[in-house]
Amino acid sequence: MSTKLGHPVLLHGFGGSSATWGDDIVDGLSAAGLVPVLADLPGHGGDAGNADAAAFTLAATLGRVASWGDWPTDLVGYSMGARLALHFASANPERVRRLVLESGSPGLATEAERTERRRADAELGMEIVEQGIETFVDAWEERPIFESRRALSAEIRGGQRALRLLNDPRSLAAALEGCGTGALPSLWAALSDIETPTLLLAGALDRKFVDIAEQMAERMPNAHVVVVPGAGHTVHLERPAEWLAAVRGFLR
Fold it and tell me: Which CATH class is domain 9-251?
């Protein structure tokens, strides 16, 4: 297969790392000539230990994303990574060929919602620092939004847990403060201006993000929704074959 399809940039979710995409996704994209660029968002993975506030602003983070890609190319994001990918595409429409948002959101619509979320994220950040990474990961994995991941094999769940434990509490707290949902401006009003062809992926068991994806598609001129049966928030882990079928077909 031709390798001219490019190298999509993949942005992971909060508390994860570039490694949490998993071998199924990386190998499946590579086999289709879509060898991905895997990079760690500020404070995650290889950047764990960084707690410099200047590194966690939206502008600084988008600058790092810009440095990772051979633009124009495709941009793929999951959860927090999807939110950041949407901001990048909105600010740099000429750079993003196609956009894939898995379990993503344009943010919170009102200032009151964002203020409340910033308060909650600040509280969570303090808990992570005070209680340590293991306690945080235990609590994070038990959140209702990730309930469907309990059906994954013990090997996959253990591997993901081990990767999350490599993160640093202070770095995760800084990431929440600088790039959390409450810290970022809402993009709901900007969706109609984002003309980049966009795939909105959501798991059928994650009703909240199915609804968000459908609302986004109504506003975005070149977006369509794929809902994956039997999957929750983390579609790429729970249904990697279906994720690959949707993403590879879209990017080709």
Answer: alpha beta
Each domain of the chain, given as residue ranges in start order, spans: 9-251
Q: d(Cα 22, Cα 1) in Å, to the nearest integer?
A: 23
CA 110 distance to own-chain centroid: 22
Q: Are strands 96-102 and 198-203 parallel, antiparallel or unpaired?
A: parallel
CA-based Rg of the chain, rounded to a whole angstrom?
17
- Asked if residues 106 and 188 have their Cβ atoms less than 8 Å apart, the reply is yes
Q: How far apart are CA 223 and CA 175, in angstroms?
A: 28
How far from 18 is each of 23, 40, 56, 164, CA to CA, in Å?
A: 11, 5, 17, 11
C-alpha 135/C-alpha 204 separation (Å) is 29
Nearest to 100 by CA among 32, 202, 24: 202
pLDDT in tens, 137-172: 999 999 999 999 999 999 999 999 999 999 999 999
